[in-house]
């Protein structure tokens, strides 16, 4: 009979390892996450962020980061501290009502509402990678992704009132603003569109999404007031379609055609003609009774050329608005890497909401933030040949009115 085997050294070592594992597990159970009262205002995050991301005094001369604390805050997040606090108040309940789902920074603390909002704003404002944004806050890429999307969902729900069609009294103020800035009577807004460029996986590519410059892109169309506030936007449509077609697919077009919008007070022109409410657009748009575009052609009369100049002054509000939108929220101006086309419209909407909040709060973007060139600088302008006879008549009456007013001012 064979003698009984002694327990091998391997088995002994295995038992020691299992004991050590149990001790380790117990140790981890005792290590708890430091809770944060998300209803309290967290101001500590900014001090930490500022120290971490502001260059040494010796390097300030070659850095574009402002030395002043308030300016530095706006440089990183596009808004003043006061506007930042307002944004936090909008989304606070939504951000604290959902489980944190592992939103913990490197110190083992749950992320405060303020830090979550700051992370999301920095991601949208800079357009930098999630890894880069995370490094500046001491969090991981997945945390940046989750926090940003939670913020976007909350803003979609809580900040909608910052982007809506004006009521009749607000519209009268807008019309007065356009007339004061450009001279156009009864003008209710300016319309324009821009491309959001992206890369797509091969399985999602199609001619619809491939635009005239061979980029894959998504359109954003917006109507703005004289203060460059967005009053209406449409997005989600492929960048490969003509702008005139984009307009016709929009809810705004259907409302205007059915009389649901731009149906307010008419105004009497100097020659006794009445003019309805309208908006102005560039040559990419059709000439309609409620959408006035410039005269086209090589040989324009003096009154036509002067009308075009006045119309361009009014239309510049929409051009500047998109330059500020894409300059302020750089995520829209960079080539997006394989975005979810179902989520991208939400990101665009929230950037427009943030643009409007800055205006509504009496805040302003830093002058250097807006794009220095045209917001669609890589795209050649399209020309729409569609002309509605009633629209042509209104445009002629407006040109005649402006010329007559100019002659009267010269005489006096």
UniProtKB/TrEMBL annotation:
Cofactors, names only: a divalent metal cation
Keyword vocabulary terms for this entry: Hydrolase, Metal-binding, Nuclease, Nucleus
Sequence ranges assigned to domain DDE Tnp4 in this UniProt record: 191-356
Pfam family, one: DDE_Tnp_4
Annotated GO CC locations: ESC/E(Z) complex; PRC1 complex
GO MF annotation list: chromatin binding; hydrolase activity; metal ion binding; nuclease activity
Biased composition (Basic residues): 1-30
Main localization (coarse): nucleus
Subcellular location(s) per record: Nucleus
Family from the record: Belongs to the HARBI1 family.
Protein name (database record): Protein ANTAGONIST OF LIKE HETEROCHROMATIN PROTEIN 1 isoform X1
Organismal lineage: Eukaryota, Viridiplantae, Streptophyta, Embryophyta, Tracheophyta
Gene: LOC105163300
